[in-house]
Specification:
Blueprint: E1 8-9, E2 14-16, E3 24-29, H1 31-37, E4 40-44, E5 51-52, E6 57-63, E7 67-71, E8 75-81, H2 83-87, H3 91-94, E9 103-109, H4 117-125
Antiparallel strand pairs: 1-2, 2-3, 3-9, 4-6, 5-8, 6-7, 8-9
Length: about 130
Amino acid sequence: MSNPQHLRYSKEHEWLSPADADGVATVGITEFAANALGDVVYAQLPDVGSTVTAGETCGELESTKSVSDLYSPVTGEVTEINQDVVDDPSLVNSAPFEDGWLFKVRVAEEPTDLLTADEYTAQNEG
């Protein structure tokens, strides 16, 4: 399992892309989390226009094994959700870092507690 180096990771297994020129970053869950969940069958994502807060729940993912809360790695306003994941939640399992992204957020403040790819990998190998 390889976590992309350009992303940052939360202890709750979400990833965050670097913000674009408009301050918008993409959020998803890691391959580690997707594998732990099993086959994702339902995704409840935050509403576009809503505010998410770093470290707080903003949705949930339901799999054949369990229901897991989705945590926002940053504080900001949701600008887009991945409708493809709502329609086909298995994208979270098949491509967690590509087509399986969950939502985009205009970052209000840069997070300071996210992990690098190496730190995240080390956390989950122990």
